[in-house]
Amino acid sequence: MDFLSPEGWPRAPGFSWGTAAAGRQVFVAGQIGRDPTTGDLAKGDFAAQTTQAFANIVKVLAAAGAGPENIAHMTWYVTDIAAYKAAGRGIGEGYKAHIGKHFPSMTLVQVGALLEPDALVEIDCVAVV
What we know:
The protein is α+β, with helices and mostly antiparallel strands and 129 residues long. Helices cover 27% and strands 27% of the residues.
């Protein structure tokens, strides 16, 4: 996998400007902060829900014989940009614990609502194995 940084551009903060990869593509459906085994939404704040979403993504990737290092792109849907920013440290800790030091291209979008009314974040991704 090649992480793209156009000449003259600054280093992207916590993601890559682009990613190029060849191989089997794995598409992970949007994951929220719900524990799939219990059905419970992560208690606490934005960081707790995001950390659970990361854990869910890693489990789906494992079912395809992939890992977080295979993620080429992530799309984040958040219901509140301010809450996302306020939870930055906790999100970073959860990211490091589940995704590691792998920084694919990413898109973050604020949305009016998610299908699960109490969900604060939903993350989908594309991986290449």
